[in-house]
Amino acid sequence: MPDDNVSSLTAKREAAVAAFADVPREPGAKKPDPILVADDVKRNFGGLLAVDVDHVEIQRGSITALIGPNGAGKTTFFNLLTGFDRPNSGSWSFNGRSLHGTPPFKVARAGMVRTFQLTKALSKLTVIENMRLGATRQRGESFWRAMLPFTWRSQEKDITERAEDLLARFKLDTKRDDFAGSLSGGQRKLLEMARALMVEPELVMLDEPMAGVNPALTQSLLEHVSNLREQGMTVLFVEHDMDMVRDIADWVVVMGQGKILSEGPPETVMSDPRVIDAYLGAHHDQSLAELEQEFESGALTAAAEAELSGDVAAAPSSEPQAPPSPTEDAPIDGGPADEKPAEETVAAERTGDTKDGR
Ligand SMILES: Nc1ncnc2c1ncn2[C@@H]1O[C@H](COP(=O)(O)OP(=O)(O)OP(=O)(O)O)[C@@H](O)[C@H]1O
Prior knowledge:
The protein is of the alpha/beta class and about 350 residues long. The chain is about 40% helix and about 15% strand.
């Protein structure tokens, strides 16, 4: 990335962070310029109160992370806000306009789009066809207009140009005519993000953008998300990857058992003992890369085994351990433990398989 871009990104981030300077670090805190405001939003599934949000505001022009343990209600809350599910009660507004009862395509037209944990790219359509479908208000959609090509041809051309620009920006232009089904998990995430931008949204909601993404694509995905703020958009994302949250979020909202438990800048939230207890566990201050290294060295496995057997004394110290010798358990090059699971498997493991149908 050129230096100019880096300094401009930094300036945007500084401005976004500065906007939170006087915001109290408490659940439901008022923001200076909220783009999205939700009140008393509740959603029951039988006896389970999956979402029970008293009040939350999302600051315009910022990147806000919504974190919380599995089952905290994050995806359900996303579904409610974007019209994919209906609440038992509550209200919310986007740019001051109530969106309660608004169907998803109208929510997208209003400027609020979302992506899904398991991507919704249509695998039997090509990449460019998927992109074109992302555009709303297409004139040829009505029967009579469809009969009069001169009324929609120029719009078709504009849509294709915009789609091609976005594909180039997301480095998917070489895949333009490939079936979406042939893309890797990470490329599909990029396609979904690019497609969401076809409606020129003001607020982009990303549900676990990192799930199933190959490490090689991680950095590029992070840059794309940061770039959304750079281009003046607001981002709200759900993520379990704490590296991503630390790296790019200006503000973090923590959910647990349907409620907003805590809010604040990433460093404050991630050192909050309640959040650590509820969510982050003992390794909250470590990056995934460090954890991976420990895992590979065997230190984490030994610690976990000792913890399970109750033999705390047997747990190794936090000092780095020497890797096991190749003559021990570890297979030499290319053994099963060396094989990386396919992205799809990782995605399925990390996201569960029941989400998308909802
Ligand atoms: N359609 C549904 N029917 C019944 N229960 C549901 C349904 N959707 C979600 N739930 C339940 O609501 C609770 C919140 O689920 P949700 O998927 O919103 O959590 P989450 O915070 O997104 O979790 P994760 O981080 O695992 O994605 C969970 O207990 C879940 O089992």
